[in-house]
Every structure is written in structure tokens, then in C-alpha cells.
Amino acid sequence: YRLSSSLDERTYAACAGHLQDLLCQECSPYAAHLYDAEDPSTPVRTIPGLCQDYCTQVWQNCRSLFRSLSADPELIALENNMAKFCRYLSLEDTDYCFPHLLANQNLNQNLGLVTADAEGCLQLCLVEVANGLRNPVAMVHANDGTHRFFIAEQVGLVWTYLPDGSRLEKPFLNISEAVLTSPWEGDERGFLCIVFHPKFKFNGKVYVYYSVEVRYEERIRISEFRISPTDMNVLDHGSERIILEIEEPASNHNGGELLFGEDEYLYIFTGDGGMAGDPFGTFGNAQNKSALLGKVLRIDVNNNDRGPLYRIPPDNPFISDPTARPEVYAYGVRNMWRCSFDRGDPQTKEGKGRLFCGDVGQNKYEEVDIVEKGKNYGWRAREGFSCYDKKLCTNSSLDDVLPIYAYPHKMGKSVTGGYVYRGCESPNLNGLYIFGDFMSGRLMSLKEDRATGEWQYSEICMGTGQTCMFPGLINNYYQYIISFAEDEAGELYFLSTGVPSATAPHGVVYKVVDTSRRAPPGKCRVEPSPVKVKSKRIPFVPKEKFIMKTPTPNPPPKTTTEGPWGGVPDPRTPRTPAVAGVGNAPPPPGGRGRAPTAAAPEPGQGAEKRGQRRRKKPPGNGSVRLMRQGRRGRGRGRVEVFIDGQWGTVCDDGWSLPAAAVVCRQLGFPYVLRATKKAEFGAGTSLRILLDDVQCSGQERTLLECSHADVGTHNCSHEEDAGVECSREGVTD
Prior knowledge:
Layout: H1 9-24, H2 31-34, H3 52-62, H4 65-69, H5 73-77, H6 82-88, H7 105-108, E1 122-133, E2 136-141, E3 149-153, E4 157-161, E5 167-168, E6 173-174, E7 191-196, H8 200-203, E8 205-214, E9 217-227, E10 235-247, E11 257-260, E12 266-269, E13 295-299, E14 328-331, E15 336-341, E16 355-359, E17 365-371, E18 382-383, E19 386-387, H9 390-393, E20 405-408, E21 415-420, E22 433-437, E23 443-448, E24 455-462, E25 480-486, E26 492-497, E27 507-513, E28 537-538, E29 624-628, E30 631-632, E31 636-643, E32 646-650, H10 657-666, E33 671-676, E34 688-691, E35 723-727
Parallel strand pairs: 1-24, 32-34
Antiparallel strand pairs: 1-27, 2-3, 3-4, 4-6, 5-28, 7-8, 8-9, 9-10, 11-12, 12-13, 13-14, 15-16, 16-17, 17-20, 18-19, 21-22, 22-23, 23-24, 25-26, 26-27, 29-30, 29-31, 31-32, 31-35, 33-35
């Protein structure tokens, strides 16, 4: 209105419509393209990209408008030369120029929807934001306006990252000498969580959850620290106060989540105590309200400088029950790993305060729950929607709450809870609950149907073709998804690793990006509060690369699964995710509760048959064969690869379903059933180990196109020879 009121009557009649059109493009779903904001190497435009014919029309009748719309001196200097003026305002990608993009059916037919492939898999992209981490278990922010984020490693160190991506050399916290863990892959003990008090900006308090050994007794410990009075990027290590300790009867199922709710109370998520099947007492720890294990606890740590270290919130559900611990907020949980509060819709606040959790299953199912006060979530009577302890399950007094979604172990064996996306940069993701599975590396999403209350499942895969071909974006990740995170602005991240050991520096943090629709330029800009830095800054250097996936005439082999449970069942056979990591693995930190069992190795040398009567043409570089008990395997066996004139084996470091998919497709099989490890089909001791650290997306033509160590270079033995099991038919049970 300010600009239009300055126009005379004739100019207003001719140009008001153009003025409105140009101003409104900042709110267009395609604003990031119109203003060339996808490429950080180019300056953000002040005028949207215009099609040649439209620019000519505006220039002829209304070029005086541009002085009011832009202070760009180069544009103003070209004002009297139509050809140069319109060339300056053009876009390299003419599909996106205004106003022709409004009539482009290819661009508009799915407007408002996340891009999905032919199988309905939502295609997203990633930005690498941190690397070289040792089992990164948590990433949090201080909610103090600085937009720093803090990443915790399982060994007991927490690092400070600044908004520019750099890391401070001095750790925010180092309690590695006190933390109980080990280098063993799958050790669930360690530093498991950190959370900042909602009033951290004023009281400087931080809370941590870690494993500790006290007089040969394993415990989980919840402690409080204060910020250093001399350095805002370091905790005062001498300020620790132990808020709560709980004895752990076994080394697994340690829980490991801390959250503050809108009520400013501290929520603590404990595991059921470990072993298997919650064998403690008559009904297990989870159903015993007098035990703190297998619970969601809620305590009040506000104003605790004097008096008790914590108090019981007056509305806790069992505060008046003499047989229950007053800290208990909800019960019947097995081992909730990663929970989050929904921020609510940015405009309507719908959904705000809902508490989502992933609860790791026992033998058959993983589940996602919405946790509510006083509710029973069924374990050990129930696992997912299925009965586990049939006697308990038929007890009518159980009154348990069913999960919003559960999936079988053919899809994954260890759920990692995530977040409902409420960020600014990827508006199409608003309302999607995004989570994953540690064992399978599968990324998944749930969307609530408001009419029915059911949750619709969609798998998430990495973008193919040009979906992720923008500067700084990648389309692959390490398989072991340990945790999810939000930054201060609400953008979504996940943390994963290629080697699930507390001492292996292979952890990476990824930011999730939806390129199908980006927010208008400038809308999501944040201005972090200044941070006084006393430690050396270590600049971030990304290491992950975009993988260009070449289409192949045959579809990639698929993992075989049964349809997921909960919401609306999806009969599709989910695809092998495009990940760069390892296949089977022990559970991650925090009580995944399940280590895979490798089959005993079969005897046999695996040498190629010799003495054929006809001389065969030598195989091509990268050819593969399967060997089992000294013979060629038919669809199953140890993988042997031909490189530079010789056959050799593949080490199982990094061996995964996507890599197995490449082998099966080479051999003419449309499905991959398993990626086997630890010489399950025998050790090829008569051959050299030719490939190690193989990491594939699943789309490559041969293993040589995958990422791998130099040919012949390895740090393994034949005890770790990799294998596959392929099939011509998918298993549908």
C-alpha cells in the first residue's frame, strides 16, 4: 500500500497489478527458486526471476517501479537497456521464471506435497553439519537465543558448536572418567542424554543422564551441573549434584532420555532393567509402580538450591497411591529411546505438548507411543499390538494404551524416536512425525489423519535424480541411526554412525531438507545472540559426498517385509534405504536391548572350481560370484569379487543390505533377503581379501562403484568374510 499510494493515477492503472505480482512472489512456494536462493554461491536476488516476455512488458510500461522495489545498483544502471535489463532478471532454469511457472503442470501438480517416488517413498535430502564423532547420542540447544548446539558422545564428552558450524576445541563437558561404558560394539551403557533447564539463560543449569559404577553396582545417574562463571561455553565440573540414582540389575535397557515439558518439570525415561522379557518380580519392573524402572518419571527441579534436590509435582498421577512411587508419570514401557514434545503447528499451535516416544521391542515389534499422564503402555503384557505375556495380556484390569504405530522386525529391530517437524525451512514437512530404526537404517514418517485419528505411514528415502543436486546437499547417510534432534529454530536433524562403538569416530550429524518446497528467502533468517568464545574454533569441514545414482534397467533388489502395523497398513515391500553404512549390528547406546546372533561359520575353502574342459572367457572387472562349502552357491553364499585378474573376498566392515543388493542384481536376482557377516558361508582362506569398508547406496552396477578402501587394503581377517542371500521372489509373510 505504501508503494501503490505513491503512484499517479495513470501509472497505478497500468502497473498496480505488476507491483502486486512482484511483491507476492516472496511468499510463493517457489520463492527459493525465483530468488535463486538455493545456491549459496550466488547473491540472493531483490527481484524474482522474470520470463523474457513478461519482463519486456513490465519494462515497456512500468520500469520506474523497479527503483522502488530494489536498491541493486547494477539493476538500476541497466534500466534504460531492455535487453540487458531483462537478461539480468532472467533465471538460468527457465522452468521457474515468473509467471510461466504458474502454468507449468509438472511443477504445480504436487504443490504442497513432499516429492515421492513411484513407490510412495518421500524423497528428502541432507546437509552434513558435524562429523568425526564417537557414537553421538544426543544433540540439544540451550534455548537462549545463541543458536549454539551441543553434541554428546557416548564416552562422556559434550561439544559446543557455534551457528557458523565451527566446534570449540574445549569440551562443554567432560565426565569420561566417571562414565561407565566400553569400546564393545553395542554396549548400551554410557553418557546417554543432556538437557538444558528452560530457564538456563537465567540459572545456568544443565542436567545429564549417564551410567556409572558405584561399589561394583551399576547405576543410572541423573545429575545437575551449572555453567562456568568465567566461560559460557563450559560447564563448571565441580558443580555436579546428583539428583537421582537408580540401580540397574543388568547392563542393557538403560533408558536414557531427559526432557523438560511446557510445565517446566523434568521428565526421565528409564528402561525396564535389562536382560530379556522384564523378568523382575511377579509382573516385571514395568508393571510395578513401586519401581522406578520401566517408567516415565516426572520431577520438579526448580528452586532446588535449598531444600530437597527435587520435589514431586502436585498433579503427578500416583502421588496418593501408597503402593506407587510418586515420581511415576506413566508406566509399562520397555525401553523408550528418544522422545520429544511436539512444538505445535506454527500458526494454530495444534498438537502442542504431545509427547512422542519410540519404545524398543523384544522379539517381534517396535512401537511409537504418545505418552499421557497416568497411562499404562502395556509392557511386558504386550509388545506393539501383540500379546507378549499371554497371561498378563488377558488381564482385563491391564487397561493399557496401544501404540499409534508398530512395525515388525522385518522392517527394523530397534526404533529410534524422532520429532514432529515444526521448522520453518521445509513447510511441506509440517506435522510429519519423522523417526528411524537403528538396525535397518530405515527413515520413516507418520502423518495424522485428523478425520479418523489414524496415523498414515510413509517411508523416507534419499532423493534421486535432481532432487538433491543443489550445493551443499547430499543423499546418503550412515546406517546406524542413534538419535534425532531439533535446533533452536525447530529444524530437524538426525545422528548416525558407521561403526556403533563408543570409541569409533565415525558419527555424523545430518540436517533434513525437503527441496520440493522451501520457505521464502529471509523468512527463516535468525539473528543469534553474541557468544563470547574463549576456546579455539575448529572450522567444520564436510566429508560426505553427493552420490549420483545412475538409473538401471532392472529395479534394485528389495528387502522383504510384512506390512507395518498401526494407522493404515501399507502392503508395499519397503525398499532398501539409500544408506552408506553397515548391515547387521549390535544395539546402540541407551538400551536398544538386542544384539544380533550370527550363524556359525560353515566349513569350506571357497576356491573356484578348476579343470573345466572348455576355456571360459575371463570375467570382467567387478564381477561377483557366490561360494558355499567349496561350490558355487545358488542365490546364497560368500561373496567373491574379481578385480585386476584375481578373485578375492569382501570384508564385512560396512557390509549392508544396499551392498548386498548390488551383488544380487549383478547375479540376476531381483530381491535381497540378507546381508550376512562373520563368514556365515565359510571363510575364503585361499583367496586375498580384496575389498573392505564397502559402502553402497544400492544403485551401483558393481561393488567397485561403491565407496571402499583401496583394493587389497583391509583391517580384517577371513573370519569376517561377507555373504548374501538373494531371491527371485519376495517373502510376503
